């Protein structure tokens, strides 16, 4: 499948337009993102992703649209771990809520660039060296099992190495300077702690991409579908953070649902040569069902129990 240039142009133009509106119109000035605003933007990003899925259906057919939506759902669900790490980093660096959106905006830009490079490299590997599919599958299964046994107090890597690296090579100021990533003091340029947080977030996203991108390749190996599904999922990550960061403690069983998804798609990838290509809608139904069950079970359990609330970012 080779999409026509026009649909590539629509994709690039749409992403560029909404990012420009986000940064220069709706979030031009630093402010605290309210729950209502986060819910509105989350709805906007999901609506755009679904609208693009409809366009994929029209241009490439229902099978391609199903693969796109499945990949989008996988990436969106796995982004919950990203949200947890973002909250930990913002708390550790005492980043004021007012400036968090700016960090996440540029973090998303960097994530799109880095993930695009990963996806292109992964597609080339799968095309020219098919056995790498078994490596991807094994990685997903192991990640799923690790997720089950990971302790709640042991968060994923949060970019500490990147922070040590930047402090070694770039002088960092001792205080925040509004939304600035760099500031000039005493005749020399210094990185602000906000830039250090941004670098740590980018490093953490690279680590997560190693898990999530192979998961999409388990659904489809079409470069266009993998790239667009991943991009639209990442675009909504900022709004999802502000919407969910304060109530992640309620989703007590979600990690088990995510683990099941990773193990299932990893096993499918490992057995792909034996079972053949399964219809994308089957994966979509399975993944959506697992997520729904884990979310409903989590909300039911948190409503009956006394799950302690955690403060995930600074007021």
The counted number of beta strands is: 2
Largest sheet: 2 strands, antiparallel
Q: Structural class, from helix and strand content?
A: mainly alpha
- Percent range of helical residues: over 70%
Portion in beta strands = under 5%
Whole-number count of domains: 1
Q: Give the strand line-up of the largest sheet.
A: 1-2
Give the CA-CA distance, first to last residue.
49 Å
Instruction: List segments where confidence is low: pLDDT < 50 over at least 5 consecutive residues.
Output: 153-159, 308-315
Q: What is the average per-residue confidence, as pLDDT, rounded to a whole number?
A: 79
The run of helices and strands is HHHHHHEEHHHHHH
Q: For this entry, what is the oligomeric state of its chains?
A: single chain
Number of helices: 12
**What would the principal axes of the Cα set say about the shape?**
globular
Cα-atom Rg, whole angstroms? 20 Å
């Amino acid at each position: 499948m080779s999409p026509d240039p026009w649909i590539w142009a629509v994709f690039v133009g749409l992403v560029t337009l909404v990012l420009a509106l986000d940064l220069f119109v709706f979030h031009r000035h630093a402010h605290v993102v309210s729950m209502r605003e986060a819910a509105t933007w989350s709805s906007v990003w999901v609506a755009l992703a679904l609208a693009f899925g409809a366009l994929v259906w029209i241009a490439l057919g229902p099978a391609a649209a199903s693969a796109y939506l499945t990949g989008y759902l996988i990436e969106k669900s796995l982004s919950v771990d990203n949200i947890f790490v973002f909250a930990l980093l913002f708390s550790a660096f005492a980043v004021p809520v007012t400036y968090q959106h700016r960090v996440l905006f540029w973090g998303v830009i960097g994530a799109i660039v880095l993930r695009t490079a990963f996806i292109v490299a992964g597609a080339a590997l799968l095309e020219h060296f098919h056995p790498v599919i078994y490596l991807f599958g094994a990685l997903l299964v192991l990640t799923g099992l690790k997720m089950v046994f990971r302790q709640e107090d042991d968060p994923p890597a949060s970019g500490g190495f990147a922070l040590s690296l930047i402090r070694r090579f770039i002088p960092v100021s001792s205080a925040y300077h509004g939304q600035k990533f760099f500031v000039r003091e005493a005749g020399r340029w210094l990185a602000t702690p906000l830039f250090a947080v941004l670098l740590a977030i980018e490093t953490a996203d690279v680590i997560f991409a190693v898990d999530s991108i192979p998961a999409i390749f388990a659904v489809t190996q079409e470069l266009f579908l993998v790239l667009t599904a991943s991009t639209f999922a990442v675009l909504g990550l900022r709004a999802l953070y502000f919407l969910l960061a304060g109530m992640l403690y309620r989703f007590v069983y979600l990690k088990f649902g995510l683990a099941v998804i990773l193990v299932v798609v990893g096993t499918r990838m490992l057995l792909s040569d034996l079972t053949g290509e399964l219809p994308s809608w089957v994966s979509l139904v399975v993944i959506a069902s697992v997520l729904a069950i884990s979310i409903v079970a989590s909300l039911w359990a948190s409503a009956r129990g006394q799950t302690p609330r955690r403060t995930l970012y600074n007021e």
